[in-house]
Write a structure and sequence with these properties.
zinc, globular, GTP cyclohydrolase 1, EC 3.5.4.16, alpha+beta, 7 strands, 223 residues, one-carbon metabolism, hydrolase
C-alpha cells in the first residue's frame, strides 16, 4: 500500500500522464449536471468543514455551491461531449496553400494531479489541403480541451488530433507554453519556470516547415 502511494505521489509530483485520453468512467454522464452540482456541493462543504472553516459566515455560505457550479459548468465543462464546439469548415475557394498560424491563444486549464491552474498560450497552425476552418473555432477547440483535468502533453495532442480530423489533413501543429501553479505555488515553488510542449503532424515533421512555424510564433525553444 505504501509503495503504491509513493508511486502515485511520484507520478503527480513529476506531472506524468498515464493515458493519451482523459480517464473517464463509462457512467460519467449517468446523472445530470444539476445532480453532479448537488453531490460536489456536499463534498466541498465537507472539505471546508474538515479544514475548520465556519460555513455560517456570510462570506463562506455560498462557497460550496459556487465551487460545484464552477467545476461542472466552467473549469471542467470540457469533459462533457455535449459542449464540444462544432468545427465548421469551408472549401478553400481562394486556394491559399501556405501555412496558417493562430498564435497566442489563451490557455486556462487545470492540472489533473493537484487540481491547480495551468495558464499559458497555445500556438496552432495548419496547411490546407482544400479545407479551411474558422479562426474562432481554433480558439474554441483549445478552450474545449483545456476545460478538463489535464496534463499539458495530452492537451497539445488533443488539439492537433481534433484539427486533423476536422480539416482532413495531417498537416497540423501545436505548441503550448504554460505555467503550472502546482510547480509555481507549491512543491519547488519556482515562479519563473514554464513548460513547453509540442505536437507536429504531416509536413510539420519536416525541419524546414517546423522552423518556419516556430519563427512565426517567435519561440526560441529548440526542438
Amino acid at each position: 500500500m505504501i509503495q503504491n502511494e509513493e508511486l502515485h505521489d511520484s507520478i503527480g509530483d513529476n506531472h506524468i500522464g498515464s493515458s493519451a485520453q482523459n480517464p473517464m468512467r463509462e457512467d460519467a454522464f449517468a446523472i445530470s449536471d444539476d445532480e453532479k452540482i448537488e453531490k460536489i456541493k456536499k463534498d466541498v462543504e465537507n472539505i471546508l468543514l474538515t479544514l475548520g472553516m465556519d460555513l455560517t459566515d456570510d462570506s463562506l455560505k455560498g462557497t460550496p455551491n459556487r465551487v460545484a457550479k464552477m467545476f461542472v459548468k466552467e473549469i471542467f465543462g470540457g469533459l462533457n461531449p455535449a459542449r464540444k464546439p462544432k468545427a465548421s469548415t469551408f472549401d478553400n475557394n481562394y486556394k491559399y496553400g501556405e501555412m496558417l498560424v493562430e498564435k497566442n491563444i489563451i490557455v486556462y486549464s487545470t492540472c489533473e494531479h493537484h487540481l491547480l491552474p495551468i495558464i499559458g498560450r497555445a500556438h496552432v497552425a495548419y496547411i490546407s489541403n482544400g479545407t479551411v476552418i474558422g479562426l474562432s473555432k481554433m480558439n474554441r477547440i483549445v478552450e474545449y480541451y483545456s476545460k478538463r483535468p489535464q496534463v499539458q502533453e495530452r492537451l497539445t495532442m488533443q488539439i492537433v488530433q481534433e484539427l486533423q480530423q476536422a480539416l482532413g489533413t495531417e498537416d497540423v501543429a501545436c505548441v503550448i507554453d504554460a505555467k503550472h501553479l502546482c510547480v509555481n505555488s507549491r512543491g519547488i515553488s519556482d515562479i519563473e519556470s514554464s513548460t513547453v510542449t509540442s505536437e507536429f503532424g504531416g509536413k510539420f515533421k519536416e525541419a524546414q516547415c517546423r522552423r518556419e512555424f516556430l519563427d512565426y510564433i517567435k519561440l526560441e525553444t529548440k526542438f
